[in-house]
Amino acid sequence: MSTPLQVATLQAAVLSATSSVIAQLLTSYRDSTFLSSSSTLNPLGLDFKLVIQFFLFTLLNTPPNFLWQQFLEKKFPGYPAQKGKQKVKVDDGGKGVTVENKLDIRNTVIKFILDQTLGASVNTAAFLVGLRALRGGGVGDCMAAVKGGFWPILMAGYKLWPLVSLVNYTLVPMEKRIVVGSLVGLGWGVFLALRAT
Hints:
two-stranded antiparallel sheet; 6 helices
């Protein structure tokens, strides 16, 4: 039986490879080279090496991210466990009604800030270094990739991921957050793949 980590990793890797294919098809269409390949084995002219690089990078990068999200949720639970359920006094004859746990705003803000600063920075640098290394780049190439791409990608990410994180941390049950993140990640992966080509 597969663990949630294994499922999330495979799901993310497949979506990442898919985003690479979509980005290549969009680039091919934009450059008017779509379906111009003479290869019968690869009529779309896809660079499968790039697809594999995205797939491999995501296989390596998803487990630490999964563990990061688990750490954040464990240390700063959005809905802290309470012994039993709360009773709220209402005018119902004094019995009270049972309600669900409330969102812990303080924990959610801390989790959000940590994820959007430390998490985003590490992920951006890891993406730039990881893809450059998978392409055979040395330390100097990897450092140049970070120097040239870190801020533009981080700033572009800030136009999308804070909203996704906020929705995930406040509205999406813990067990469904990976699915939401992966679906949004498909579009983000297309953006990154377009930048990487």
